[in-house]
Every structure is written in structure tokens, then in C-alpha cells.
UniProtKB/TrEMBL annotation:
Protein name as catalogued: Cobalt ABC transporter permease
Entry keyword annotation includes Cell inner membrane: no
Membrane topology: Multi-pass membrane protein
GO cellular component: plasma membrane
GO biological process, one term: transition metal ion transport
Keywords, sorted A to Z: Cell membrane, Membrane, Transmembrane, Transmembrane helix, Transport
Pfam families hit by this protein: CbiM, PDGLE
Superkingdom: Bacteria
Subcellular location: Cell membrane
PDGLE domain mapped to chain residues: 246-336
Membrane spanning residue stretches: 7-28, 40-60, 72-98, 110-129, 141-164, 176-204, 247-267, 313-334
Membrane found in the keyword field: yes
Amino acid sequence: MHVPDGFINAPTSAVTAVVAAGAIAVSLRGARRELDERTAPLAGLVAAFIFAVQMLNFPVAAGTSGHLLGGALAAILVGPCTGVLCVSVVLLMQGILFADGGLTALGVNITDMAIVTTVVSYALFRALVKVLPRSRRSVTVASFVAALVSVPAAAVAFTVIYAIGGTTDVSIGKVATAMIGVHVLIGIGEAVITALTVGAVIAVRPDLVHGARGLEQRLKLRVNGELVDAPSAPAAAPVAARTSRRALWVSGLVTSLVLAGFVSYYASSSPDGLEKVAADHGIDRKAEQHAGAGSPLADYGVKDVKDARLSGGLAGVIGVGVTVVAGSAVFWTLRRRRTADDVSPVSTTGTTVENV
């Protein structure tokens, strides 16, 4: 659903850029509360994984494909504020390096693909978790439904933005019907990918899943006819915990590299939902060439590498690498800022205390 340059007029694009900037500013503050020493590395990995899976277009109808948007997945794994930042990092890398999504439309894309999908999916996810039984399976089910709804919600958001600032004269009713219809189908693929990924992480490290926090209930023992809390189990050795997190991070990175560097070659070549609707209804009549069309990595291929498989694979690997580095840098910086803020001066003698 990457909107190219020329679909939306300049004033509307400017307004969405302001909205996106404001949401990112709020998310930067919110992410400092969501991230800790365990989840900060996972956030960078989530951004890289979303980049990789977005290269895997899957067929949804005759001549149409879809791909992961990732807002629901990021929000559930690392929190809604961090999720907005994860998808925004992906969109920024795609727009600058791969000429995917217009640069003047970056505000539109962040508003639509990062903000709307994350806010809608996480709000629905939290509502479902409250009414479902407190279990890991409920988290997976809620993830599926939230992801499914987030994609047509993004389609509705694009339709509204197009109704306000579209550059071609196309019936909004036709645009809405076509966009929502095809993106309901794409939402099924989004839901499957999100539920499988969340379920896989919960199976090995439920404590790292933001949306699963608070599900574990304290074991009760009956003593003299009364229920009391059971003694806490000994904490896992710090080295073992670090090794477990490291293993999860490495396996996630390897999976992302394999998906982007190898599996992406077999992805559907059909246009995605927005591209198909734009072509069928004339929305793309005023589309403009991307400013980075001459980039060495434009269109997810490496310039001057003739073999298509090798070119696409190298581009995917480079994209995953750049995204994980950029994302990790952002999230580790936020984590360090939180740590610094947790220590505040209390006197002019240089004494400090740590907030608890």
C-alpha cells in the first residue's frame, strides 16, 4: 500500500507530514516507557523482520497481490508507540534506498501504514484480550483478529486522504469499494502472518511479548484452609536469560535474511492492492517518477548485477541489514535516555538517587 508521489496533492501531503511528525514525537516519548534492556534489541529486529516480510507479496485474487503492513505485529510484540516507530523506520528505508513509496508521500504512508494500523489494531487487541480467557492462545487469537481489521482500516484511511487531496477525479465510492474489498482479502494474509509470528515468540519467550504481559497469574497454595501466594521460583540465571534472548535475536535475524535474500525471489509479481485499484480506476494518471528512481537499490535490485535472483537477494539482505542497524540505533538510544532519566539529582552536593 505504498503511496507514490503524485497520488495526493501537496497541501494534503504536507498536512499528513505534520500528523506523522507529531505521532512520531509522541511515540518517541511513549517508546521510552515501553522499552527495557530485554525488549530494545527485539524492537530493531521487529523492524527488520517487517521489512523482510513486506518483500513477500502473496496472491489474493486474479492479478492482485498483497503484503504485510506490520502495524499490528509490531504493536503486539513491542508496544504501540514502539510499533509506530518500527513501521516508520521501515517506510523511511524503503523510500530512501529502494524508491518504494514517494518521498513527498512519506507523511501519507506513515499516517496510513504506521499510525492507523498500529492504533486500530492495538486498541482492538487490548479489548479482545480483556474479554477472552487469560491465556497465550487468547493473545494469538486476538492478534489474528486485530491484524485482520487493521488492513481494511488502512484502506479506509487512504480513501479518506484521497477524498481530501486526490489528484485525479475518480468516484470516491468506487475507490472505497475497490480498496476495502481487496484489502479485506489482504488482511487475511496479514492476520495469518501476525498470529503465527506472535505465537512463535510467545512459545519461547512470552515475557518479551508486550501484548502478553500480565497474563501469568501467581500460583496459590492452600495453607490452613486459606489461599496464599506460593513462594516465587528462583530467578533464571542472568547468563542463561541473556543467552536465550541472544538466541531469539539471532534466529530472528537469520529468518529475516533468508526471507528477504532467498524466499522473496518467489514472491508474487502481481501488483499489490493499491497498485491494482489505481491502475483500474485511473488514480495513477498523475503519478510521478520517484526522486530516487536512479538509486543503486531502486525496485529492490542491485544496480549492474544482471542476475535477477542474485540482484534481488542482495538488495533484500542489504535492506534487512540497514533496517536492523537503523532501528536498533533508535531504540537503544531511547532505552539509554530512559535509563538516564531514571537517575535524577536531589541535592547540590552531586548526590543522586535512582527512582524506583
